[in-house]
Amino acid sequence: MLVIEDFRNLSLPSMDKRVRVRFAPSPTGGLHLGGMRTVLYNYLFAKKHAGDFVLRIEDTDQSRYVAGAEEYIFNCLKWAGLEPTESPVNGGNYGPYRQSERKELYRKYAEQLVKDGHAYYAFDTPEDLEKMRQDFKTEQNPSPQYDGSIRMKMRNSVSLSADETGIKFSNVIDETKLPGDALNEFAYMGGGVGVIDVNKDGLQDLFFTGNQVSCRAYINKGKNSFEDITEKAGVGGNMDWSTGVTMADINGDGLLDIYVCNSGDVKGNNRKNELFINNGNLTFSEKAKEYNLDNEGYSTHAAFFDYDQDGDLDCYILNNSFRDPGKIELYKNCI
Predict the structure, then answer these.
(1) What are phi and psi of 270, to 5 degrees?
(2) In this predicted model, what pLDDT tens digit does every residue of 213-227 receive, in sequence order?
(3) Could you tell me where the DSSP H helices lie in the chain?
(4) Do residues 316 and 330 touch, judged by C-beta distance below 8 A?
(5) Beta bridge mates, 285
């Protein structure tokens, strides 16, 4: 605990940014004495360092909201002479100052976390959560929480089955079809996954490459439901042992295209890379040869970037290590 004597003697190192402290009560009833103590510490700290004291109303739990509680909080702070610099009443440069009014801001970052694989969607109802608490209650754990040990038993985007999502792709390896020299660590390097908004509806669609199975494309229909459009789109591929996949607007028409790297069958055949140009109508045309990107060097992955800064995307292809390094090629966009 930080006592008043220590608080008065507290000094901060040199800081370039302005001090900002905040108090975030919930409008679920009267303001507690402990809350006023927190306000006092924040207020004094901000005043000492010529900073800002911010009041933010934590009103996201609408089931416990008490009418008039918010106004009561404002009146208490005014009565105590501890009025905030920024608040729902006073405004400020960083509003809104009610959490319920900041949902769109938080949604943006929440969706980014999901996109980056750091978060997932949960579909459990209050009834599901209560059932979970009862089902997993033990003497050692009388109040089970929704955590990593339980989430695969709940309904969320991590635990959804293939039947629920419509994504039934499986990169199965049949070892009996691999000769001895091919059955090594490279056999289980896996394929690639690409994310692309094919029809520009704001939903992220998926593309999977397969080693011994064909590549598959799934269009996102919303609510974690996908449709396999591989045949319709013409992106299943005709080569063997596909590895990496890269999404890029290669021809500069505003649509993402799909570039698939291939390493060939066990004899080293059928390994030319494939380029699927987006036609803008949920179909693609394979044009790797036309773009001089039908490389056959046991490719693993590729990256597109403007190497010479001429406004066109160039391509770097990474080939497997047992291939002659001279086959690792850098392509300049000449189209």
Answers:
(1) 55, 50
(2) 999 999 999 888 999
(3) 4-9, 33-48, 69-80, 103-115, 126-135, 162-165, 230-233
(4) yes
(5) 277
